[in-house]
Design a protein that fits this description.
The protein folds into two domains: 172 residues, Thiolase/Chalcone synthase (Peroxisomal Thiolase, Chain A, domain 1); 148 residues, Peroxisomal Thiolase, Chain A, domain 1 (3-Layer(aba) Sandwich). It contains eleven helices and 13 strands. It is 32% helix and 23% strand. The chain is of the alpha/beta class. Helix 3 packs across helix 4 and helix 8 runs parallel beside helix 9. It starts with a strand and ends in a 6-residue tail after the last strand. Strand 12 and strand 13 form a beta hairpin. The protein binds acetyl coenzyme *A. The site of acetyl coenzyme *A has 24 residues, from helix 2, helix 6, helix 8 and strand 12.
């Protein structure tokens, strides 16, 4: 039995936070943000809109496009670092309930921007082992809830949104997800973290309540490790599977920074049309960024059945991952 990437869906909240808006909030400029990151705007969830709400909307679309009955789903995984609730219940269980899926195995993955690739790897393993048949994987983030809007080093980067996919069992090898790479190195944990609020911080730590869960990032150091790791990981997955970069129809990297994406694309000798870019309009949506980008090329008619996708992600942890995935759904 093989695992096939059957469908994609996404949800983008309506409110837009532009670079001009940020100029009024912190000491920054549209010129600096665009030049250093490639971001023009990002979408922000409504105050009462949760990570699970956005995940549900993306999931409904993915389920419909997969052409399955929702009751055929036997596992729900949500990749997120901005869950509805700290610790428990998991956002995946809330999404499953809102979709009307009772008794299904559901849990969250915490691997920051690599979360969707980790979820894909778990779905593939459960399907190939014969334990599950239709796995709903979701990347959903309300990063605005954990962003410090007084810190110009991070608040210009992040946005909200969700993407979802159905991974299904198939006997057709041509549809099979070819390979998924995943890795981590906790020695770099301090590059990108929410330092307070967990068991690693003292109860009487100052500002525990106020700023406890805001993201802190050593941007420049993270940038260098990101370029190095993303490049070496995609080179390895292509070599191990004996696939030339010219065979990749869509290179879909995590959308953190245009300069990182450009450096990795150049290292792989990719043509411009092979590289999927959404960072300009969505910013960095962490675990949601790759499925939102896949949905973008689906919606615009660029993604067709059989197209080979190369996914590449990097995030807090540090974590990283890549995947070689033929699209096993019908194009739009
Ligand atoms: N506006 C204006 N100036 C700024 C801003 C801003 N928003 N932010 C920083 N600066 C200043 C700095 O203070 C610094 O000034 P100085 O030279 O006087 O000290 C200068 O700009 C350069 O700062 P750097 O941090 O070196 O800028 P850099 O070119 O590295 O860009 C950025 C910063 C955009 C954050 C970049 O480092 C980056 O994209 N890092 C990687 C992010 C990433 O991939 N994260 C992993 C995934 S995210 C996740 O897992 C949730």
């Amino acid at each position: 039995m093989y695992a096939a990437f059957r469908s994609i869906g996404a949800y983008v909240p309506t409110k837009i936070l532009s670079n001009a808006d940020l100029e009024r909030m912190v000491d920054t400029s549209d010129e600096w943000i665009f030049k250093r990151t490639g971001i023009k705007e990002r979408h922000i969830a409504a105050e009462n809109e949760t990570t699970s709400d956005m995940g549900v909307e993306a999931a409904k679309i993915a389920i419909e496009r997969a052409g399955i009955d929702k009751n055929q789903i036997d596992m729900v995984i949500c990749a997120t670092i901005s869950p509805d609730y700290f610790c428990m219940p998991s956002t995946a269980t809330i999404i499953a309930d809102k979709l009307g899926l009772q008794k299904v195995m559901a849990y969250d993955i915490s691997a920051a921007c690599t979360g969707f690739v980790y979820a894909l790897s778990v779905a593939k393993a459960f399907i190939e082992s014969g334990m599950k048949k239709n796995v709903l994987i979701i990347g959903s983030e309300k990063l605005s809830a954990i962003t410090d809007y007084t810190d110009r080093g991070t608040c210009i980067l992040f946005g909200d949104g969700a993407g979802a996919a159905i991974i299904s069992a198939t006997s057709a090898q041509s549809e099979a997800i070819i390979d998924v790479h995943t890795g981590s190195d906790g020695a770099y944990a301090d590059l990108l973290m929410t330092p307070n609020g967990g068991s690693g911080s003292a109860h009487d730590e100052p500002n525990r309540e106020e700023a406890g869960c805001f993201m802190k990032m050593k941007g420049n150091e993270t940038f260098k490790v990101a370029v190095r790791t993303l490049t070496s990981d995609v080179v390895a997955i292509l070599e191990e599977n004996n696939i030339a970069s010219s065979a990749i129809k869509h290179f879909i990297p995590h959308q953190a920074n245009y300069r990182i994406i450009k450096a990795v694309g150049d290292a792989l000798n990719l043509e411009e049309e092979q590289v999927v870019l959404t960072v300009e309009k969505y910013g960095n949506t962490s675990g949601a960024s790759i499925p939102m980008a896949i949905n973008d090329i689906y919606e615009s008619g660029r993604l067709q059945e059989g197209d080979l996708m190369l996914l590449d992600a990097f995030g807090g942890g540090l974590t990283w991952g890549s995947a070689l995935v033929p699209f096993a759904g019908k194009g739009k």
